[in-house]
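Researcher: Structure prediction, please.
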Amino acid sequence: ADVEIQTSIRRGQLSFPNPRLVKISTPYLKGGVLFDDFQKHYGGDSPDVLVWKASSALMNPSLTPERLERLKRLDPQRYSREYEAEFSDDLSAFLPWEWVNDAVEEGRHELPPRENVRYLAAVDPSGGGRDAFTLSIVHGEGERSEPLVVQDLIRGWSRRGGESPELVGVVEEIAGLCKTYRVRTVVGDRYAAGWVRQAFEKAGITYRASKLDKSAAYLEALPLFSQGRIRLLDHPQQTRELQCLERRTRAGGK
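Model: Predicted structure follows.
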């Protein structure tokens, strides 16, 4: 993720007396480190960050108005992004930035377990790549026909340097958190390796494979965001990843 790359660069700059991090790019979707900088610092008086936003016409006077107008006629949506430096509500964005932003309860980082509340837990095991091993615990409120989904806890275990997290230890930690919320079953990817199920069983937790693949699960979550029926914790990485999700049509049109 772009935020992890930025974090690594900043860590490497610590030994320099006057480091500067320069980020130059064409705007894309309303998400990621560039959009975060734009939202927080553009037009403001920040002592740490200067955001410069300018059109191609300003930065490259050799481009004639006639040529730019032709490009605009050919593809107005991409012209706005590529030549006017506007962040895009692109059709490829799965969730509009505003939907995700509205779903986040600012300042709420975790909710403690409550009596008489039924909690559900889902995990996304790390496949051995750069992805984190993640856990989320939620509960439902309101009418059964149109429940409000409330996120209570989120955790992630990522690589540190080149080393993967100690996976058995992660499962044991997840099991402890689940038991705090009286959860004895977690739902996860049906393609998880056999050791994942065995590790959870050994820790006293049943691992149940989801009936939906990730694409179908995202589609089922879409109405929760569009109808304002989900409340997420204030977790910057989760927010950023949701805002950066993109639609990709697979073979068969799905």
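Model: The chain has a mean pLDDT of 87.
Researcher: Thanks, that helps.
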